[in-house]
Amino acid sequence: MPMWENHKTSIIIGAAIIALLLAFWYMQAFAFVFFLSILLTLLLLDPVDKLSLKMPRGLASLLVLGGFLVIFLGLITIVSSNFIPTLSRFTDELPTLATNIQQLNGLTETGLFQKGVDEAWAELTAISTKAIKSSLLIAFSLFNKLIDFVIILFLTFYLLMDGDKIKLYVAHLFPDKDKKRIVSLLDEILLALRTYIRSQLVICFITGFIVYGYFTIMDLPYASVFAVASALSEFIPVLGPTVASGFGILMTAIHTPGLTIQTAVFYLIMTQINHNLVYPAIVGKSLHLHPVAVILGIILGGELLDAAGMFLAVPFMVVIKHVIEDINEHSHLM
């Protein structure tokens, strides 16, 4: 009995994390919506805190969330005006691009490599064709995403307005002697997640802008497609930028072989600057996650939740890391 009493809070925290992971495993849509709501809340928390000093917090939350929505839709409109036509043209040319890849010098010499390229591009082409033909399915999917988006906005509003109350409510579920511990743990997790999402957004915009500028200046095709792909890839650390860089270099080799080496050098320099200068400057050492752990976490997340799992892998690792550190720290104090 004394052993249970001494470690009760740690056991409950561990069980809660396991239950959360299981819930995310069996309810993947819930996982994505819930976590995106938390990340969006953390992104908008500072302006809400400042405005709430001058007006009711509910009104401040509504104004900040409304301002974000206007900016977000404006950016989507600006990007889509160029991105959607370019993406459509890129999709139409996928079969031709696949043929051009096979004709690159050296690729046809290795049967195994050629087979792998053929299979990858055949799958990509099949997916694109199916997406174009299944217009009703696409419309239904977009409707579902719209509903998810509305749910995320509502959840974000209530988290912005009552976040502190929710945190205290959670803390009060634990024994009185551990309430400060729970509040401290939640604060540490939320701070780390806020640092993560802000840093990723900054790197995302910087990367997209630089890639778009390079492709435009070099007169390479599909500038907006590769800019968006490179920007979004930053949300999947390590693996994402590597795949996006390889894809950009390969497309350059097809359309403008003379710029292949230059494009490879461009991606190499940009990636190194992002992850050795920009990322550390923004994030610092607050996450303390080794690249190997990040890669394995992303692979596992992709296996469990597909693309959503790859996106959520690092935030989840941050949460689990802080929970384990908290349990380990307090187990020595018992």
From TrEMBL:
The keyword Transmembrane helix is assigned to this record: yes
Transmembrane segments: 12-45, 57-79, 136-160, 196-215, 222-240, 246-270
Residue runs in coiled coils: none
Membrane topology field: Multi-pass membrane protein
Annotated keywords: Cell membrane, Membrane, Transmembrane, Transmembrane helix, Transport
Keyword Transcription: no
Gene Ontology CC terms, in alphabetical order: plasma membrane
GO BP: transmembrane transport
Compartments reported by the entry: Cell membrane
InterPro entries per record: AI-2E-like
Chief location bin: membrane
Family membership: Belongs to the autoinducer-2 exporter (AI-2E) (TC 2.A.86) family.
Protein name: AI-2E family transporter
Organism of provenance: Anaerovibrio slackiae
